[in-house]
UniProtKB/TrEMBL annotation:
Residues 70-217 form the Oxidoreductase molybdopterin-binding domain. PANTHER family: OXIDOREDUCTASE MOLYBDOPTERIN-BINDING DOMAIN-CONTAINING PROTEIN, PROTEIN-METHIONINE-SULFOXIDE REDUCTASE. This is Molybdopterin-dependent oxidoreductase-like protein. It comes from Kitasatospora viridis. The lineage of its organism: Bacteria, Bacillati, Actinomycetota, Actinomycetes, Kitasatosporales. InterPro entries: OxRdtase_Mopterin-bd_dom, OxRdtase_Mopterin-bd_sf, TAT_signal.
Amino acid sequence: MNDEPEQRGTPVGRRVMLGVIALGAAGVAAGPALSRSVDSLLAGLSKQDPTGLTGLLPDSGQFRYYSVTGPVKSVAPADYRLTVNGLVDRPASYSFADLQALPQHRIVHDVQCVTGWRVPATPFEGVRLADLLEAAGVRQGATAVHFDCFDGSYTESLTLDQARRDDVLVALKMKDQPVTHDHGGPVRLYVAPMYFYKSAKWLSGITVTPTVRKGYWENYGYDTDAWVGKSNGRDDAPTS
C-alpha cells in the first residue's frame, strides 16, 4: 500500500465525523455483525482523517491509520531528516539518530479528539520542541512556529509561547514503543494540552515564522488555538 502513488483525499469535515461517530455507537449497540460492517466503513474513512477521530471510536479500541492524501510512503529511521529553519540564527537538519541522542522526555497524558472521544493516559516520549528552538536561536520578530509533514499536504502551527511549553514534544515514541508509520512515525509532533489534530504526523519541517500560519484543518474551520475544553465550541474537561 505504501508504494502506491499518493492521491489527495477528500477532507473529512465535522458533520461527516459526527455521523461516523454515530455509526460507530450504533455498531457497538447492535452487535458483532453490524459492528463489523461499520468497522469496514470506518477503515476507509480513517485513511482521510488526520485528526485521529475515527481511531478513537469505541468499537475500534485503538488508533487507526489515516491521512489527508491517501497512502503515505513510509520513511525509515535511517533515511529520516527533520529541518529547523526560518527566523533562526542556526538552521539545522537532524537525523533520527541525532534526535535520539538528545535528552528525552516522557509525558503520560490523555489524548482528546475534537469530537469528544478520549484515550486516557497515553505515553509519548521525545525531544522537547523548546530545546530544538533554543538550539536554533530564535531571532527577534519571531512569534510562531510552522510545521510541515512528509505526506506533502498536512501542516500545523503554534505560537512561539505554545511551542516552548514543556508538554510539547517532537515525539519518537508512543505507548513506550517507536512511533510507527501508521501513527505518524518515525517522528511526529505531540501537543499534550490541545486537541489531537494539532499533533501533526510524519513531521519533516519546523519553521520559525513572524506570524501564525493556519494549519490544514484550521483552513476548514477548526480553531488555531485548540486548547482542550476551551476551543472549537467544546467544553471537554482539560486533559491530564
